[in-house]
Amino acid sequence: MAADKASVAEQRKPKKPAPRKAARAKLNPVKTAAKPIAKPVVKAAPRPAAKAAPRPAARPVTKPAPAPRPAAKVAPELAKRPAPRPQPGGGAKLRPVKASPQQVKLWNSLKPEQKMALREREAVRLFAQGLERHRAGDLDAAARLYGQALLLDARLPDVYNNFGVVLRRLGKGEAAVACYRRSLVLKPDNAGAYTNLGNVLRELGRLEVAAASHRRAVALAPDSADAHYNLGLALRDLGDSDAALEEFAKALEFDPGHADCRWDRALTLLQKGDFKEGFKEYEWRWKLKRAEPRNFKQPLWDGGALKGKTILIHAELGFGDMIHFARYIPMVKAKGGNVVVEVAQPLARLFSTVPGVGQVVNQGAQLPRFDVYAPMMSLARILGTTLETIPANVPYLKAPEAHAPQLPATMSRARKVGIVWAGRAAHQNDARRSVTFTNFVELLGLPQTTVYSLQQGPAADQIAASGCQAFVLDIGRRMRDFADTAAVIEQLDLVISVDTAVAHLAGALGKPVWVMLPYPGDWRWMLGRDDSPWYPTMRLFRQQRPGVWDPAFERARKALHDDILGREPKT
Question: pTM of the predicted model, to two decimals?
Answer without folding.
Answer: 0.79
